[in-house]
Amino acid sequence: MGFLADGGKLGAMMSARDWSDSPLGHPRDWSQALKTTVSMLLAAQAQIVLFWGPDFVALYNDAYAPGIGANHPRALGRPAIENWGELWDDLEPLLSGVRRTRKTFAAKDRPFYVERHGYGETSYWDVSYSAVRDDDGSVGGVLCIVSETTERVLGETRLRASEARYRELTATLEQRVAERTAERHLLATIVETTDGQIQALDLDYRWLAINTSCADAYQRIYGKRPRVGDSLHEFLADRPEHLAAATTVWSRALAGEAFTNIEEFGDPRFDRRVYELKFEALRAPDGTRIGAFLTGVDVTDRLEEQARLAQAEEALRQAQKMEAMGQLTGGVAHDFNNLLTPIVGLLDLFQRKGIGGEREHRLIAGAAQAAERAKTLVQRLLAFARRQPLQAIPVSIGLLVAEMGDLISSTTGPQIQVTVDTPEDLPAAMADPNQIEMAILNLSVNARDAMPHGGKLRISAKARTVGDSHNSELAPGTYVCISVADTGIGMDELTLAHAVEPFFSTKGVGRGTGLGLSMVHGLASQLGGALTIRSAVGAGTTVELWLPVSHAVAGAIDAVPQSKLRPQPVGTALLVDDEPLVRMSTAEMLGELGYNVVEAGSAEDALQRVREGLRPNLLVTDHLMPGMSGTDLGLALRNQYPELQILVVSGYANNEGITPDLSRLTKPFRSDELAASLAGLAKAGR
Fold it and tell me: Which helix H or strand E contains 441, and what residues bound it?
């Protein structure tokens, strides 16, 4: 690499460059002829570029680099066609000719079309292209010694043109006058036909000039057109507030100030438009200020498009934030469910066995109640994260809402007048009735809290059609819209912007979890619907829950039975969970139900037990575990033992990854919930 040592900036650049992407490979592997040539050109003061090899890979020195503009330094070590593409049809035959014939090509003021500064231009060069032999005697490349003569050539061209123009102008005064007249006519034509607004006023606010585009703009926003000689004061005399706005900006320009303003003008009865206006003083040939002129552009559409873009960007940021928060809360809920499972199971065991005296019974009952509240909190987190288990069926929303009237009235209290309005012909909606009831109750409680001194609460449901421009961003179609409207204190814009975020609450410490609206929002999204909120301070709030219409007939809403079934002992249960505390609690429950329990900490451990001879009658397995999932474990064992009963237990509350034909139980659970699931397995024969 010593041949690059005294090569200036380009030598240093070659030494530091990563040559792995260059057809030439690393400089240490170059032929001696190439190294010698490069060493020579780097030390030279002349503009030199070497095109080496069949791909004409470019190597050049410090003097040459400025001549290729923006192509430096990316051209270094790359095939010439990549960076001299615009002149390649001209340059390639010259380089190929020198390689083929080994004869030097030289020219003076040779024109080349280049795009070195981001635009096309013709440059001129004195050039000498010579063949350079490689170590084996073949032509290795073409050495180009050049000198740019563009400035001299263009200067001489301008000088010749100037001299010719001078001779032409002095030849006939009449022709010069005609050309000057034509030039003025052309300028006037351009001013008159341009889309931009151009006008000039004298010091008395009278129009000195106005082009058609500007007169058209006045016609659009005021319904009339000014003419040269008209007074601005008289033109807007019937609109004093508009005259004041116009004279405010014109007075600055007529005082000699040059400035640019973006202003909105126009009578609302006609149109209001936004213009970008550039004002400048208008002067006579002797420099005396005689008025002012402006050039303007209608930027209304551009600003509206920018506003729409900003709104779309904000919506995207909000969606990304909510998605990230959903993923976070979903993961937290999973871990929390694993923590709650042994707690709920142990408290359930204590209650069933009646451990302790009356005081201990009260403490255990309080702890069990707190655990249930924690379970509900996790469900709300999962609702926000859109990962709760839903049993979407055709639901008669009208009947459901009507039957909740008494419950809501008792919840809100006597100070609040509750009205329920649902039409009889309301179509069914695809929904989970239990979750919809919880959502309506949550919204009603929020409405109650927003009316501390009483008010009116109206709960209604209607079938509504959504078009392309609905603010909920729902797909066009028919939806059932459940509306919960109150006459409470309302929300300002900042509160409204954060209303559906989890843990955001205006109720104060200890008066709410901040998960009510976020849960309803997540539920609506999970069901393929949406949540919209309208609110203003002092004017109340209306929350609308949109649900997709079902084309099937709604059935009766059955209450979830509290099963007291206990499965008959059927032998050995293989219990698989990577959480020891969860495994311990579940094993205790299974033992009480009559099973001989064999525990395993992973799917791989469970398979090993089976290979060693274990023949379980029941598999109870966690779904998500390190390594093989519980679902995959269940399917693998079912292939070997089709009669094996399988129950998948999951801390996550969605069905992703769980085969539909496997029974499923969500953590945390009590002994009777486990028993009901196992009884269902026994009844189904699986």
Answer: helix 433-449
Cβ partners under 8 Å of residue 644, min gap 6: 616, 617, 618, 619, 637, 638
What pLDDT is attached to residue 452? 86
In this structure, what are the phi and psi dihedrals at residue 633, rounded to the nearest 5 degrees?
A: -60, -45
Alpha carbons 73 and 28: distance in angstroms, whole number = 21
Cα separation, 479 vs 550, in Å, equals 9
pLDDT digits (tens, 9 = 90+) for 272-287: 899 989 999 999 888 8
Torsional class of 330: left (φ above 0), alpha (ψ -120 to 50), beta (otherwise) = alpha
User: How confident is the model over 103-153, as pLDDT tens digits?
Assistant: 999 999 999 999 988 889 999 999 999 999 999 999 999 999 999 999 999
Minimal CA–CA distance to 516: which of 588, 450, 604?
450
Residue 126 pairs in a beta bridge with: 147
Q: Which residues contact 634 (CB under 8 A, 6 or more apart)?
A: 619, 621, 646, 648, 659, 662
* Structure token digits, residue 245: 């706005």
Which letter, b or e, does each residue of 323-353 get, where b requires 16 or more Cβ atoms within 10 Å of its Cβ?
A: eebbeebbeebbebbbbbbbbbbbbbbbbee
**Residue 185, pLDDT above cutoff 80:** no
- Taken in order 56, 57, 60, 65, the sign of the CA dihedral is positive
Q: How many CB atoms lie within 10 A of CB 379?
A: 20
Amino acid at 381: L
Q: Is the pTM of this model over 0.70?
A: no
CB 389 within 8 A of CB 654: yes
